[in-house]
Amino acid sequence: MSEFKQTFNSSLGKKLIMALTGLFLCTFLIVHLGGNLLLFKHDDGYAFNVYANFLTHFPPIEVIAYILYLCIIVHAIYALVLTIANRKARPVGYAVTASDNATWQSKNMGLLGSILLLFIVIHMSDFWYRYKYTSSVHFMEYRTDLSSGVTQAVEFTPTSPDFENSVQTVNNFEIVRVKDLHARVQTSFSQLWYVIFYVIAMVAVSFHLKHGFQSAFRTLGWVHRKYTPIVEFIGTWLFAVIIPLGFALMPVVYYFTRS
Amino acid sequence: MILDAKIPAGPLAEKWSTHKFNLKLVNPANKRKYDIIVVGTGLAGGAAAASLAELGYNVKAYCFQDSPRRAHSIAAQGGINAAKNYRNDGDSVYRLFYDTIKGGDYRAREGNVYRLAEVSVNIIDQCVAQGVPFAREYGGLLDNRSFGGAQVSRTFYARGQTGQQLLLGAYSALNRQINAGKVKMYTRTEMLDVVIVDGKAQGIVTRNLETGKIETHTGHAVLLCTGGYGNVFYLSTNAMGCNVTAAWRAHKRGAFFGNPCYTQIHPTCIPVTGDHQSKLTLMSESLRNDGRVWAPKTVELAQKLRKGELKVTDLKEEDRDYFLERKYPSFGNLVPRDVASRNGKEMVDEGRGVGSTGVAVFLDFADAIKRLGEDAVRAKYGNLFDMYYQITNEDPYKQPMRIYPAVHYTMGGLWVDYNLMTNVDGLYALGEANFSDHGANRLGASALMQGLADGYFVIPYTVGDYLAKIGPKPVDAKHPAFEQTKKDVEERIKKLLALKGNKTVDEYHRELGHIMWEYCGMARNEEGLKKAKGLIQNLRADFWKNAIVLGENEELNQSLEKAGRVADFLELGELMVDDALMRKESCGGHFRIESQTPEGEALRDDEHFAFVSAWEYKGDNQPEELHKEELVFENVHLTQRSYK
Amino acid sequence: MSANGMNLTLKVWRQKNAQTAGKFVTYKAEGISPDMSFLEMLDVVNESLVHKGEDPIYFDHDCREGICGMCSLYINGHPHGPKRAITTCQLHMRSFHDGQTITIEPWRAAPFPVIKDLAVDRSAFDRIQQAGGYVSVNTGGVPDANEIAIPKVIADEAFNSATCIGCGACVAACKNASAMLFVSAKVSQLGMLPQGQPERYRRVQSMVAQMDEEGFGSCTNTGACEAECPKEISLTNISRMNNDYFSAKLFRQEELHGQSHGE
Prior knowledge:
The complex is a heterotrimer.
Chain A: H1 2-9, H2 11-36, H3 46-57, H4 59-88, H5 104-107, H6 109-133, E1 139-145, E2 151-156, E3 166-170, E4 173-179, H7 181-188, H8 192-220, H9 228-256
Antiparallel strand pairs in A: 1-2, 1-4, 3-4
Helix pairs in contact in A: 1-2, 2-4, 2-8, 2-9, 3-4, 4-6, 6-8, 8-9
Chain B: H1 15-22, H2 28-31, E1 35-39, H3 43-55, E2 58-62, E3 80-81, H4 93-103, H5 110-130, E4 155-156, H6 162-179, E5 183-186, E6 189-197, E7 200-208, E8 214-218, E9 221-224, H7 245-252, E10 257-258, E11 263-269, H8 287-290, E12 292-296, H9 299-307, E13 320-321, H10 323-327, H11 337-349, E14 361-364, H12 366-372, H13 374-392, E15 401-410, E16 413-414, E17 427-429, H14 447-470, H15 480-497, E18 503-504, H16 505-520, H17 526-546, E19 547-548, H18 558-582, H19 606-609, E20 611-616, E21 625-630
Parallel strand pairs in B: 1-2, 1-9, 2-5, 9-17, 18-19
Antiparallel strand pairs in B: 3-4, 6-7, 7-8, 10-16, 10-20, 11-15, 12-13, 12-14, 14-15, 20-21
Chain C: E1 6-14, E2 23-32, H1 38-51, E3 74-75, E4 78-79, E5 101-105, E6 114-116, E7 119-120, H2 123-130, H3 152-162, H4 169-173, H5 180-192, H6 200-214, H7 224-228, H8 236-251
Parallel strand pairs in C: 1-5
Antiparallel strand pairs in C: 1-2, 3-4, 3-5, 6-7
Helix pairs in contact in C: 2-6, 3-5, 5-6, 5-8, 6-8
């Protein structure tokens, strides 16, 4: 065991942890974005709310979710530990430093990461915490006529405070009762400061991953003349453009189309 | 006094193996009872320190730089010779021996040179095993090239950085022994004297350059691997820190100085641009494999070029004089260094020099680029072309380079016998610091060979013989000689620090360099040498009155470091002049204008000068005493060198 | 530029020794020829200081042809000055313009303490090499050089890594003062060559351990080291080192610490 301890206490081991947690968070972003695209469905939040319900109630996903939270915490803590060590390695700074020997984002991962951490805290307290641990998110009932496929949404007030969700089929109607996270999203995205904060955070995601994704591969030692260009392509187009753009579009679209 | 070189008897090819058998061995269990001091950690010193530590001796190694990896061996570019005959082009140990003896203009010992050629093959094996990345062919085997003065391809190389790669190999071997605790490494530590106890070298006095602390160190043997003294010329291709101090201090303690006037002028260096110049940059002689050396045919054309009225690329083919190809049809641009250098100087003296100063000739790659393509030329010489461009701001792919000779290597050095021991018991000199293997002129790619041969394959055998004879009794650090030598060093430092005149040490150094280059450089004559002797004496006297040496001993004090080194150069310079005056013949790098063939080639006088001069120090400002070691040639026939 | 050359203002870090605090001192460098190297320009300044009886500026230097790795200097925010792929001794004054202010600082890193003025102690690099930067062969008794065939591309790539001059510019340039480019260059060189294989996984572990012990920062793949390296050592070396290190630590059982072979 001490062998592992020694490995992960080394500078390289800490970097390995950063890379692995970072890459795991990257894969999560793909899933997260996929789910969030359901917000663009004009179905009174039916698909989205079902999806949110699924994420919070399907046990294997819950396990993964906790791994995810752990990854965020570990990624942040190790970043802090490494940053402190790196600062210690240069107790006296330079009077003049050049800016043209490395990209801006590669030199400011800590700043970008801090913005992201702040964002994640606000984001999670706003949605995840309220959804899971408070009753401030109301319920919705979706009745789908199984013969016509038409879904109607009505508000639902559970009788028991412990109610979480239910699916029943009554008279050829499928009745799905879940928490209405969609409404919460609508409320949040109708506030300008919130939208701006979201967009800034997504710019931070873009820069963070522009450097971070390919950097993780370098740290893992996976550099190859044939495959590294592919990694860089994915890091740039998927993680630094498509994903942050996709996420940023949601608040913007919701803000401008709010009723 | 008769100097005994201790060359073993017997046939040439068997001398070294016979000698190795006859050398005494130190019992493995006893080896750890011996301390060996190694001063200098370049190829010779690094290799020696590592090899001796591997054998089990306790080694203390010293360098003035901040790390052993900085030693100036690192700057050697071209390559290292070895008689591997991988090319099947007729090479052999005997041919390498013969080429080296001939290239040295028959002023080296047959026995030493043969041994050098013999162990050359082991060096390559050793370096490859260490992980030195020599150039290879697509088949995976080692590549070779032909190199200055050789008609076979026996030079192994690592792009233009062979010295660096070999030194890092030796450095890695040294590091392994430091890690194992068998070598104690002292960096930023300069040796300032050698301690002689009852006629035996038993220690050194050093100054810690960071703190100024003067210390004594004991050892059963002292190995000086401290390089050459080319910086006596101020401008040379040597590193700024290269100095003669260790060797000179040993000389003043009784070690004879061999052939001090043999200095090598390298033909392909970047010309001087002005008085600010602090050193000269060499470009590998391998450039002459593909580059063609030329000067304008007439003085008028040269003048036009210098004034910028004519562009070099516009000069017609028939107006160019490829003087080396013209004068030496069979060797062409590949004549030995001394020949190429002297011919370049002749062009300049005739007024056919080029560049704004007029002190340069051209080295042209236009034909090579036409023949091989720019990419092929770039692959071979890219780093040299880049370096040239950095320094001169001229693109050698588009216009010819300008080159001029510069002091590069000193064949002379401490006199040593076949065992590499000086005439002082227990005091050895290895690599460029000794005089032994190159005669009056060193061939290209032979310096690395000699440094490593001495360090890896000669000294580990020969030092054992001496140590076995003296026995493993600990050296008495309390012997008054240690205290006395330390006091001498301290007094000299005090004397230097008391100098509060009006001229900087660098100014003296520059002036000495001018004298040496002018009168004791590429061509020498009696009148000039006599004049130089007086000038040096005056300069030295003036130095001890009017130099400025700032600061104190107990600090990092570059002023003091330089002053000590220049003071020694001021003494050495005079000895070089004496040696050049005494040697009334031309040989190799020593060209006496009075002694030349009708074609202007160096003319030896074998009847009177086939000897090694070994000078004995007789006290400050006293004439030194000359001892002669007659050179015996049993195998080669002395001929006039001809590269026609 | 006047006929007599350039006039420059130098802001130079002066520090008597490791124990005392340092500060910037301003000097005028006058009549500087564009053909001078940067160090020759400092020589000229020093000559005038000596004439005035002032302590000359101390800086490390030796070969002055870009190979010994002794010269350093952080010039206007760049190790070895603003030009790429050269050392300070190869930097010529034609890269500057008349009237320019040049700030000259020592390498800054905790494992590189200032000795005096612009010179720092880089012995940490030696200690890292001593920890394992070698192939354990004794002198003599090695096979013929051509018994080991090495593909040319491998030999060339190993050579590229081997060109490191140990100057420390990578550490100076890195915002984390990381030495990984330096360490990985040696790890890569020997790790790629067949001669280095027997100790490949041992070597990387001991060299990294020593690197950490010296107190260098860790790599964040900014690439500043590669950009500032006078020998253009590639960042890929660091990945190679990481790969070897993780293989050694996580997958190779014969390399467990303190055990010669798996039980």
